[in-house]
Amino acid sequence: MRALVRETTLEPGDLIYPLFLCPGESVRREVSSMPGVFNLSIDEAVCEAEEAAALGIGGLLLFGLPETKDEVGTGAWDQNGIVQQGLRAIKLSSAAKKLVLIADVCLCEYTSHGHCGIVAETSEGWTVKNDPTLDLLAKTGASLALAGADIVAPSDMMDGRVAAIRAALDKAGCEDTPILSYASKFASAFYGPFREAADSAPQFGDRKTYQMDGANIREAMREIDLDLGEGADMILMKPAMPYLDVIRAARERVDVPIGAYQVSGEYSMLQAAFARGWLDRDRAILESLLGIRRAGADFAVTYFAKDAAKLLA
Ligand code: PBG
Fold first, then answer.
1. How far is C-alpha 136 from the chain's CA centre?
2. Hey, which end of the chain has fewer CB within 10 Å, N or C?
3. Does the beta carbon of 304 sit less than 6 angstroms from any atom of ligand 1?
4. Domain that holds residue 111
5. CA-CA distance, 288 to 240, in Å (whole number)?
6. For residue 11, how far is its CA from the centre of ligand 1 (angstroms)?
7. Residue 1: inside a domain
8. Domains identified in the chain, total number
9. Which atom of ligand 1 is nearest the CA belonging to 267?
């Protein structure tokens, strides 16, 4: 009877599993602050993709750790970049037909300074230059789509990047590739463990000049409106648990598909509690994801995707 009257559903197909691709072969390096999450060489990532497909997971979100970094993040749009190679390999595997491949579009994993855009010196210190960054993000988005990404997902939070990426996709002949925009991404302490996983911690300063102030929900709605106006097809809310009210507000405002990202810090704090026996692992994983769905997200990006899919099987 409970099943009959349940208002919110959670299925493996609602889940997106993030993978961190790194150079090499047979590499499976656990991220110390994210037990159960690994930097994976492409051969290992293909195995993960096959496992995810077998579990009925909806898709993968791909991040890359390049061999080398530079000031402008050249590795992000290199046709032989780490994620581009990974996309081509996964597309050739049997998993490809069952999984949506989403490529994160950002420069922070590829820049030597770890910021999401071009950095310039000013009389008051440094600044991230919004407009000159757009061209690089646009090139990156097109290059990932050409390599096989089914969806590109800009997470940099520069203003105007959705329009720039849309134009570059269309020009490259990828007019059918949708944009999943991290439209309202808050400057959050909960990204801490990710920055170890993706080796993308800013070498100076923070991301508060381009990511949002956690105090602002009206501004979040304005950011969403702007991205949809520029042509975003879906939006990704982030983080999830501390911002469930923002997901709900977005759900009530717009009709596009909405995803929510249960970010690294949300994952790691639950894992830390599980390790101490302080929380019931299986119940807490599913409850945390159900809460995201109930808040209004159609799908959730989560490092628990495989665990949750097994629990839901
Ligand atoms: C890249 C990016 C970040 C995350 C996703 N894309 C890090 C950041 O903005 O610092 C965070 C994901 C997570 O914490 O799991 N800009």
1. 18
2. N
3. no
4. 12-312
5. 9
6. 24
7. no
8. 1
9. 15
Is pLDDT of 126 > 90?
no
Asked whether residue 6 is assigned to any structural domain, the reply reads no
pLDDT tens-place string over residues 100-114:
999 999 999 999 999
Q: Provide long-range contacts, Cβ within 8 A and 24+ apart, for 224-231.
A: 224/183, 224/184, 224/250, 224/253, 224/254, 226/159, 226/183, 227/162, 227/181, 227/183, 228/183, 228/254, 228/256, 230/160, 230/162, 230/163, 230/166, 231/162, 231/163, 231/166, 231/179
Q: Quote the CA–CA distance of 296 and 181 in Å, as a whole number.
A: 17
Q: Where are the alpha helices (DSSP H) in the chain?
A: 2-5, 42-54, 82-92, 130-147, 161-171, 192-197, 217-229, 244-253, 264-275, 281-295, 305-312
**pLDDT digit string, tens, across residues 5-37:** 999 999 999 999 999 999 999 999 999 999 999
Q: Is 264 in the pocket of ligand 1 (CB under 6 A)?
A: yes
Cα(56) to centroid(ligand 1), Å: 25
Is position 196 within any domain? yes
CATH number for 97: 3.20.20.70
pTM for this entry:
0.97
In the block, tokens 């996964």 appear at 90
Give the residue whose CA is nearest to atom 7 of ligand 1: 191
104 found inside a domain = yes
**Hey, which residues are catalytic here?**
185, 238
HSE-CB of 53 using CA atoms within 13 angstroms: 17
Between the CA of 3 and the centroid of ligand 1 the distance, in Å, is 35
Index of the ligand 1 atom closest to the CA of residue 193: 14
Assess whether the C-beta atom of 116 lies below 6 angstroms from ligand 1: yes
Of 237, 189, 184, 240, which is closest to residue 212 (Cα–Cα)? 184
